[in-house]
Amino acid sequence: MKIYQRHPWPLTLEEAIAIQEQLRIEVITEDRLEPVQYVAGVDGGFEESGTITRAAVAVLGFPDLQLQEQAIARRSTTFPYVPGYLSFREIPAVLDALEKINITPDLILCDGQGIAHPRRFGIACHLGVLLDVPTIGVAKSLLIGKYADVPDERGAWQPLLHRGETIGAVLRTRTGVKPVYVSSGHRVSLTTAIDYVLRCTPKYRLPETTRWADKLASS
DNA sequence: GCGACAG
DNA sequence: ATCTTGTCGC
After folding, report:
1. How many of the other CB atoms lie within 10 Å of CB of A177?
2. Which of A47, A100, A103, A187 could form a disulfide with A71 if both were Cys (CB 3.0 to 4.6 A apart)?
3. In chain C, which nucleotides are within 7 Å of a protein Cβ?
4. Fold observed for domain A13-143+179-218
């Protein structure tokens, strides 16, 4: 897909903060998505002691979840891992990988938070705004927020709260397994996000999209 | 000031 | 994220 560069990639935290402040106002948390035919998953990883960032994209058909296309990209790492600024470390390589695929996904599931972020601008929001494509954040662990115990059955969830607002959902995708943290990325509401995450997790805790991207990036 | 802290 | 084997439990 064609990628339009909205801003240069920052090398300092100060520059990153400025970009977050500028782009966060563009995030849309309402449903503005087309019928989903293709769902993509993106994943970032590191090699050579972290000096190289590796990203993988897997595009699956929906709702069959069969792999349709894949791509991998590597580029030198230019930003450190700082909680709250993960996107500046991983998105550059993710865009490189997305540029290689022919199918434009109708929805992208990201490995990390959406608006369940201190400034409501997690990696899923950042990627969604840069591409203007609907995105959802699906994280394996908590960044911010509090929540009540989630019943043990698949499909059960509890709102993730922060400063008086619901910023996401703690969702059980498999009975008896740790829940995942779901939040709107861009152009997708929370209830719709929960629905898609459940439809992308027919068998395992994590969505098939991210599992594919993970597998491709590792091998 | 003291912890918490996506990947 | 990454370094890493076997092991507990359904």
Report:
1. 13
2. A100
3. 1-2
4. archaeoglobus fulgidus dsm 4304 fold (3.30.2170)
